[in-house]
Design goal:
The complex is a heterodimer.
Chain A (H helix, E strand, L loop, with lengths): L3 H13 L5 H13 L1 H18 L10 H8 L7 H10 L8 H22 L15 E8 L6 E5 L9 E2 L1 E2 L4 E8 L2 E9 L3 E3 L6 E4 L5 E7 L2
Antiparallel strand pairs in A: 1-5, 2-3, 2-6, 4-5, 6-7, 6-9, 8-9
Helix pairs in contact in A: 1-2, 2-3
Chain B lengths: L2 H19 L6 H20 L2 H17 L10 H19 L6 H6 L8 H7 L2 H10 L3 H12 L4 H8 L3 H25 L1
Classes of the chains: A alpha+beta, B mainly alpha.
């Protein structure tokens, strides 16, 4: 059988948990007002909790997300899964009037030329492989950053040649035309912090104790 | 948060997880960004040290990523992550010292012998609260942090910690009593 003190204490905690009924709240507040010792106990508990609840939230350290992404282990995706993704993954196609008109024009051109093409030899423009480029898209997630550039062997390590554009989701992107080959690069955040690409194909020691990101471009 | 918003958030998170599992690891950054403040603050309140909190919060995200295959799509990602963060912090505490001593709290209480500058910096309420939290046993601390800092209800905490609601209430009750005593002692010393 609980004594009064234990009952009062249990009720105080019920109040602090916001689980007391309105009758229990009225009853408890009347008891608290009538008993200075109980009032002090309630006030002390409520004050302690108020201090905890109103304590300041700590700001997250800079580059927290980039560091996590850099440390993520590589997960191997099976060949079958890759084929499945390629064939069945949903793709969002964003249309605008210019794209629609261009598509209509292309279809009309193909139809008008179909008969001619059927009766003639196909002409293929010979392009030297060394002149061909591939448009490479680079992404870097840094919502806190104010400026992100990419610097690497493809731009002679210049820090202002290839500046990424920030999206609403904090993802910075850039498309760079590159010839086939292997390149090393780093992202430069706010003009001073050099960060390896957390999603790089590979990494290479830069000789200064850091890792450069490695990009291989194939046709 | 309304049910429809909550459902749409869960659907978006499930889609993000599915894409991570299907070979798009960069998608995971969306989840890290969304929950890093929550994970870091829980770790900070559990451990009381910025460097350890950052390490444990980051390790929690990495562990969650490694275990994405085991994630149940019906569950809330946040609850799953809460559990990982709390367990990481408890493991970290077990590996080191579990609680601080009352002397550690006295150290941050201003007294006449200290310089005004020291007294001013020591008077920071946050430090006092953190030291008091640090002195609680981990089982009490985790309930106080989840209940009174993250404002979760007992049923959600029960899902996260795998402990019955009644046991949690007892721990919260004892934790609050202990916190009150520590803060009272602090006030007497001031």
């Amino acid at each position: 059988m609980k004594n009064d003190k234990e009952l009062n204490r249990a009720l105080i905690h019920k109040l602090l948990d916001n689980e007391a009924s309105s009758d229990e709240q009225r009853d408890m507040m009347a008891r608290v007002q009538a008993d200075p010792g109980l009032k002090e106990e309630y006030d002390c508990l409520a004050r302690a909790l108020r201090l905890v609840e109103t304590s300041e939230r700590m700001p997250v350290p800079a580059f927290f997300t980039a560091e996590v992404m850099r440390k993520l282990p590589l997960k191997k995706v099976s060949f079958g899964r890759r084929v499945w993704n390629f064939l069945f993954r949903g793709r969002a196609l964003k249309w605008n009037m210019a794209t629609a008109l261009a598509t209509v024009g292309l279809v009309a051109l193909v139809l008008s030329q179909a008969d001619r093409v059927r009766n003639s030899q196909v002409e293929t423009a010979v392009v030297s492989p060394s002149e061909q480029t591939v448009l490479v898209r680079m992404n870097f997630h840094a919502p806190e950053a104010r400026h992100v550039a990419v610097s690497g062997t493809f731009n002679k390590w210049k820090v202002d040649s290839n500046v990424l554009k920030k999206g609403d989701d904090g993802l910075w992107t850039i498309n760079i035309p590159l010839k086939p080959g292997a390149y090393t690069y780093m992202f430069v955040v706010d003009g001073k912090v050099w960060v390896a690409d957390p999603n790089a194909q590979a990494y290479d020691d830069d000789g200064f104790g850091q890792k450069n990101s490695v990009l291989r471009v194939n046709l | 948060m309304s049910n429809s918003t909550s459902n749409s958030t869960a659907t978006e998170e499930h889609e993000t997880i599915r894409r991570c599992l299907n070979g798009e690891p960069e998608q995971y950054a969306l989840l890290v960004d969304k929950y890093k403040a929550m994970a870091y603050n829980i770790a900070y309140r559990m451990l009381g040290d910025a460097d350890s909190a950052r390490d444990m919060a980051q390790e929690s995200f990495i562990s969650a990523y490694e275990g994405l295959e085991n994630y149940r799509y019906g569950a809330k990602f946040s609850s799953w992550l809460y559990r990982i963060v709390v367990n990481k912090c408890k493991d970290h505490l077990r590996a080191g010292r579990d609680t601080v001593q009352i002397d550690d709290i006295r150290d941050i209480i201003p007294d006449g012998a200290r310089s005004p500058e020291q007294a001013a910096s020591l008077r920071q309420t946050g430090d006092v609260i953190q030291k008091a939290l640090n002195s609680l046993p981990a089982e009490y601390r985790e309930v106080i942090v989840l209940k009174h800092l993250e404002e979760l209800d007992y049923h959600e905490i029960s899902d996260i910690l795998g402990v019955s609601v009644n046991t949690l209430k007892v721990r919260a009750h004892r934790g609050r009593e202990r916190l009150k005593e520590l803060l009272q002692e602090t006030r007497r010393m001031v």
